[in-house]
Amino acid sequence: MNPGRCAACRYLRRRCPPACIFSPYFPPNNPQRFVSIHRIYGASNVAKLLQQLPSHLRTQAADSLYLEAQYRIEDPVYGCVGLISLLQQQIHDVERQLAMTQAEIAFRARHPQAVESNLLNNVGNPSFSNQASSWFM
Amino acid sequence: MNPGRCAACRYLRRRCPPACIFSPYFPPNNPQRFVSIHRIYGASNVAKLLQQLPSHLRTQAADSLYLEAQYRIEDPVYGCVGLISLLQQQIHDVERQLAMTQAEIAFRARHPQAVESNLLNNVGNPSFSNQASSWFM
């Protein structure tokens, strides 16, 4: 049962064997998927990476290899390490904002007289947040 | 001037040419760096990836390729895509916590009578946060 060559065997111009390691993960209707992976890892390295895994985990591995290859093609210098740095910076920013907001609550609880009603109406206003955060720095 | 073979040429058991593409990024005192990269990408793919970049960007590219190779060795199924998913989940969680805390400030500003002094002393206590957040859900 070999109705047609998979995208990998087509690209490599070879016969698609019945137990082809690529066939389940690189269907012929999506040739670009193998082209990207081949460009970054090469066919033999992808085959090796898939073969060392139990078959029920190979789909996820092929998907993640494809994603990493796409990141590397889009950003040949940093690949997905660039995205990781960006996300880590984003977490740092949101955590800092959260700490400031929690400090704001604690301050209001302990010094209600310092918080005038017109300031209270400015919650969510960036200039208010900057002013409030300066209390805790 | 070729005082010694680089880590790549040593691993590949070949002469290290004067203009070796690997030599500046794989010094002989860190052989593991090339072993990891070679295991995931293969030597010719790494050479190709480095050669297509201007020389002032190759150090960063070699570093990021090494990091990605390490992630893939540690997690052969998801590689650094696993870390990206984890970081995205972490951002989602912190953003949700921030939104809840901001809503808490807004609620207190508009309903000061609902916030009793003994509740105020519980700022930062997770059970208080859960109780407070239920007001806004």
From TrEMBL, chains A, B:
Source organism superkingdom: Eukaryota
InterPro entries found in the cross-reference section: LOB (IPR004883)
Domain LOB: 4-105
Family of the protein in this entry: Belongs to the LOB domain-containing protein family.
Name listed for the protein in its UniProt record: LOB domain-containing protein
